[in-house]
Every structure is written in C-alpha cells, then in structure tokens.
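Reading a protein record of the kind used here takes little practice once its layout is understood. Each number in the token line that follows is a code from a learned vocabulary of backbone shapes. One such record is shown here in full, so that the layout can be seen directly:
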Amino acid sequence: MAKAFFRLQKFLRRTQFLLFFLTAAYLMAGSLLLLQRTRLVIQQGSRGTPANQALPVPDEMPRAGIADPRTLQNPRPGPRLLVGMDALQEPALDQRHSPHWLTSRNSELRQLRRRWFHRFTSDQEPMQPAGFKATKHTTEHKGTYMGCFTHDSRERTLKGAVFYDLRKMTVAHCQEACAERAYTYAGLAYGAECYCGNTLPAAASKAEECNSECKGEKGSVCGGVNRLSVYRVEELRAGARRRRNVIYRGCFRAPENLTDTFPASLIQPNLTVEMCSEFCSKKEFPLAVIRGQECYCGYPTGRFSLREGTDGLRCSGTRNASGPAEGKYCLVYQTPVQDTRCTDRKFLTTKSKVFVALSSFPGAGNTWARHLIEHATGYYTGSYYFDGALYNKGFKGEKDHWRSRRTICVKTHESGKTEIEMFDSAILLIRNPYKSLMAEFNRKYAGHLGYATDRNWKGKEWPDFVNSYASWWASHVLEWLKYGKRLLIVHYEDLKQSLIPKLKEMVEFLNVTVTEDRLLCVENNRDGNFKRSGAKQKNFEPFTQEMKELINRYILTVDEALRGRNFSGLPREYVPR
C-alpha cells in the first residue's frame, strides 16, 4: 500500500512540474508576441506620419470619451431588418447579438484592415541615398533612357495619361502603358507614378536626383521627389494592336465652325481613321473627328458635347464628301490619349466644416462614384477603411485618416446609429440589390476587377452569401433614412444613364463649383480603372426562387421607406421580377 502511495505522489509531482513549465512557456510566448506587435505599431507610426507632423485630429468629437469605432473588435451591431415600416419608427431590438451577416461583415473588415497594414508596412522602403546609381536604365527595358528631368505635379511636363501603382510599378509596366496609348515618352516619379506624353520635358536635372527605387523592381530607378526618369517608348505594340485602342464614338452633327471648335486640324487626301487617330494622338487630344478629307482634334466641349448622336446612316457619305459644304455630319473616334483636363487632384487646403459621407452597400458602385467625384471636384475622397489596392491605383485619400476632414467626402458601408450620426450629411448611393449582391460576391472572391468562378456560384458560398447580405442591403438604406441628418439619394442606375445631370447634383451637394468642360472631361473618362472588363454572362440563373422572394420583400420595404421620407421611390427595374 505504501509503495502504491509513493508512486502516486511521484506522478503528481511530475505533473505539477509539467504544468508549471507549460504555464511559463505560454506566458513567455505571449510576452514576445506583445513586444512584436508593439514594435510594428511604433514602426508603422513613424513611417506613416512624418516626425514634424501629427496625425490630423477632427475639430469636434461626438461626445467626450468616445472611441474610434474602427478599433473596436466588435462594432455595435445594426438593428435587424423588419419587413415593414416599423424598422424606421421603433428602436432596434436584441442589440446584444449580431446577426450572421453583420458578424461576417465585421470579420471581413478586420481582415481588410489587417491586410492593408501589412502591405503598408512592407511598401515603406527606405529612401536611397543621393548617390544611388541606376543599374537597369537600358539593360532590360526596350525604351531609350532620355535622362532625369524636373517634375511639377501641378504644371506637368508630360501632360498625357497618368497611372499609379504604389506596390508593383516597374519601368517596363510604365513604358507598356504609355505605348498602348500611342505616347512617345514615359516618365516615372516617386517610385510608383507613371506619366505619359509626346513632348520631352525642357528642364533637365542631375542624374543622381532620380534616386527612387521602383516599387515593383529592385535595382531600377523610377524618378525621385519632383523628378522624372524619362524613356522614349519604342514600338512595343504592332499597328493592329494599337488600332484596337481607337474607339468609335458615333456619328454627330458637325459644329458650324470646326476650326474654332477644334484646336488642331489636318487635310489629307485618302484620309483614313488610322491617319487621323495617329495625328491627334501625337497632338495629345482624346478625340479624332473626320469630315471628308478633313481631320480635327480636340476635346468634348459645350459646342461639341457628344451627347446627341445621330443615325449612323447620315455619316455614310461623310468619308466621300469632297468639301466642307457637303459634310453636315462627322465621324468621331476616341483616341488612346487620356483626357487630362480633370485628372489633377489634391487634398483640401483647409479642414472641411461639413463632414460628408459617401455611403452605400458594398457592390453598389462606391468606388466608381469616388472616381467621378474626385475628377469632377479636383479633391480626393477619403475612406472609413484602408484598402491598399485602391490606394495603389491612385485613391490617395485611402491612406489619409478618415476624420482628418482633408477630403471632400468619406466612403463608408457602415449603418449603425453611432457611425451615421458622426456625419453632418451624406450622399446615399443605392443600387439594384440583385446587381449589388453579384458585384460584391465577385469582389469578395476575385478582387475589384475579377469574377468569381462557377464553382463559387454553384457551391454553398453563394446561398450563404445571399442569406447574410440581402438583409444588409435593406437595413443599410433604412438606417441611413432613420439617422441621417441631411441626405442626397442617388440611384446607381440614374447616375449611369444621366451622368452629367446627376453628377452636377452631387457636386452642388458638396458645395463645389465646377466648369462645364471639367464635367465633360469626367464623362469622357467615366469608367476609370475599376470597371470589370466584359459582362461575363453566366449560363445559369444564380438566384433561386426562394432568394428572389426574400430580396423582393426587401425591395418593397425600402421603396416604401423612401416614399415615406418624400424621396422618389426605387427605379422601375428594381421591381420584383
């Protein structure tokens, strides 16, 4: 008996020692993880904000002691959607438990912020010293290196198209982008910005002043601070490939005085579309206009807005007209050249007194609306989230603190009472839920420009997604109608069909004055860089009858709520199908 007791005592002592050892190891691992996270946060703070500039702080806070909602692990859940008008009149019930769709959304937002943070810290490479020498100017690139030149972002020397890629920019990528648009020169600045043009900059700089390493190619130089590394673009595309970039815009009635309307012209026997397009591209104009043997180059203007096209049959004899008197109509083509009259953007010079939200359900066209607003007003838009993919493509407001008030408006998908009441006013963008759900599903599984696979659509992911997100589409509108202080309702379909009138409403709501030519420039660049190419029609119906019945109930609820607040109801195409 004593021997058995002794064995038991020995076993317990060993177990106690083992538990003590495991506890100590656990605490040490936790301490190391905490120290590592602290170091990353300090590093991010020192890189993201200059030493002599504090992070912008908003003028007012909703109330003392309120925390930034984006730092909370579990944001306050929005109310459950009630089919009927009661959702607008009574406070939300059961706030202690988030609905399934909100839990999924919060998880996605946390992952998005975490992904952006790691991308941001990895992108912040130290600047090369002034003596940094380029080693790949001519060895691996088809273009001819012309030298280092002065660059002014306001008075650009290369006045053509502009591209950004703050993660993967290379010399070859910039050259190819400019060559596809028929430009002669490609210039790179800040390691990530690409500029195109047909005129070589006049002010040369010292070679060592172009010292920024390309973000996507170590050892290669992509300009510097206010400096351009300029290459002469070789023929990277065959003539047939270049022709594909010329887009037929239609047949239009010719203005009374073409010489006054268009700043450049050419008279050429046996004139072809290729001749006129190449001539206008070299002159850096986005439109090529053909009437008989005459070629005109210019921009859309008040005199020639391209809004009212005519029957193409009226232009059937245009190419054979022998003189100006015989040509009442003209053919219009879009050249590869970008209309740059509205591409300049900046942050607000003083903090905005009115805090404006650009609110929408995901997949409702918020990024496209931001593109239109930025190019129409000339000011960057901000974001409640930090999306590195958008920042890398030129939405510089992504990295600005969302409450800095240095942007013209702030993108948000939030729909909680606290988040809504932080804003003084809002543009509420609404899109057909059938289209919105499909767009967001594509983004979730294939990114901003990709498409989800048939396997995703036919698997369990799609039914789960619809069940979770359909109610969010409706509750988002209902909550903004209930708690929003000053709203402008914009339907995506109306904006797409009547771009200029609707964009004018949005710009006036933002209290910004713009010229007609700038709005026409926006219309000429309406798609931006975040439009999915092609429709990619599916050979099956993604929505089951049960899904349709669920979504249709939400459509009727939102339509009734809008009319109850004296707004116009949903467009007819939203009507349950």
